[in-house]
Hints:
CATH topology of the largest domain: Collagenase (Catalytic Domain)
Helix content: 40-55%
Shape: elongated
Amino acid sequence: MNSIKLYLAIPCLFAGMLTFAEDSATPAATEKSIATAEARLAELGGYVIYPESQKGLVSFIDTQSAVDVSGDFDEVIGHFRRQVPVRIEVTKGAAGEPGALKRSAKANFAVVFVSDDKAPPTVVVPEEGYAVVNFAKYTAGLKLPADEAKYKRRCARAALKAFVLLCGGGSSRYPGHVAAAHTPQELDFAHDKLPIDIQDSVKKYLGAAGVTTMKRTVYRKACEEGWAPAPTNDVQKAIWDKVHALPTEPIKIKPEEKKTEK
């Protein structure tokens, strides 16, 4: 009986030690760890992007002037940029036919922002590779201009939702994200950060259409692989000089001749 208690106690003790270790990770320790990693990255010359790793383009084209959502949209799309680092451009443009705007931007996919009282809230045309988000239809339940901040955020989330629906991320096992919002009001409480299954779906969809994610490595490795760009600071120059000073051909050592006794 005592042995059974001992077997039960050991896992509990181990779990308690793990919990204590996790609790001991103070903010100061976390900051120190981040600072150490950043210092090591700096020693290696920072990150550089592999040439041609970011192929294709997703373009968000703002053709309306009713509301400035630039700051809010940058923040909302920021989570996606970090998780799926494809090439994304956000530009201002004149009103026009969405397909023509997409072709003019030389984009694989385009989401166009408009403000038109007579148009529907969102139109998604996957066959043509574009979507249209009508900000004029996202004022429901708001009192402008007092609710302008909420309105901007709602429009930014509506744009992200249109992008997700356009690029193969319509369903998820997780609730509460922008693509699951059924009404403009639900966008006010939706998560900006997309669930991992939607990220994977969008990533695969984009990749199949030629929009590939960014790949990067440290500057030192790029030098060793022979494709690094010219150095832009003293650290990179020191790495460049050191790597390029190494012999490119294997050193041949002449075998020692055996001495023969006469």
